[in-house]
Amino acid sequence: MARATLSTHVLDTTNGVPAAGVEVALYREATLAAKGTTGADGRVAKLGDEHEPGTYRLVFDVGAYFRSRQLDTFFGSVTLEVRLRDGHQHIPLLVSRYGVVSYLGS
Fold first, then answer.
1. Which of 45, 53, 79, 97 has the smallest CB count inside 10 Å?
2. Is 78 in contact with 100 (CB distance < 8 Å)?
3. What is the pLDDT of residue 1?
4. In terms of C-beta density within 10 A (0-12 exposed, 13-18 middle, 19 or more buried), how is residue 75 classed?
5. Distance between terminal CA atoms of the chain?
6. Is the pTM of this model over 0.90?
């Protein structure tokens, strides 16, 4: 059976820096499939091991990230529902205190 792998990258566009220390969780239905924390470069290079292809929720705790920097923010968390396919997917998140953008990266 084909398997999926996932990485992510969070960029703080308010300050123009990688967002280090963001907690990231991956859920399949109500079950936690993997979790990680972005490093100094804003990346989680490997979010869990291999996953079965399917629909997942990727949850970024950006509220805690901004609060730890004494900054007010509109977002408590950002949740993306994604369909993982076989092979590797990279999902960047660009976040400011009041806006978010994401896309399927390479």
1. 79
2. yes
3. 59
4. middle
5. 23
6. yes
